[in-house]
Design goal:
The structure is a single chain. The protein has about 110 residues and is mainly alpha-helical. It contains six helices and three strands, in the order αααβααββα. It has helices spanning about 1-5, 5-35, 35-50, 60-70, 75-85, 100-110; strands spanning about 55-60, 90, 95-100. The protein has a three-stranded antiparallel beta sheet. A hairpin with a 2-residue loop joins β2 (about 90) and β3. α3 (about 35-50) packs across α6. The chain starts with a helix and ends with a helix.
Amino acid sequence: DMLGQNPALYEKLLLILCSRIRWINQQVEEFGLLNTPSRIASKILLLKRKFSEQENVLEMSQNELSEFLGVSRETINKTLQKWDMNGIIRISRGAIHIVDHEKFSRIAEN
């Protein structure tokens, strides 16, 4: 078969599968061990690091964030509003601005 004839392809496929398994394992751990605010904060930090061009801004709507996390939009909104009122973040249309990175990181770690 094609994989037997192409060991490099077989190795690449195996690396991709291992990466996916590690990611799924991490998701299961986070879902079971972290409370909802910590999950939200840790994913915001992850998405910001991977995809944001601005240092302390994640350009993503609350609806997109809720779909990505599998959390209701209402829960996302209430959590972000609380952080906004406490000066940890600032919410704008389609973006989340991290104001107090230290406090936000602590939330993500709990």
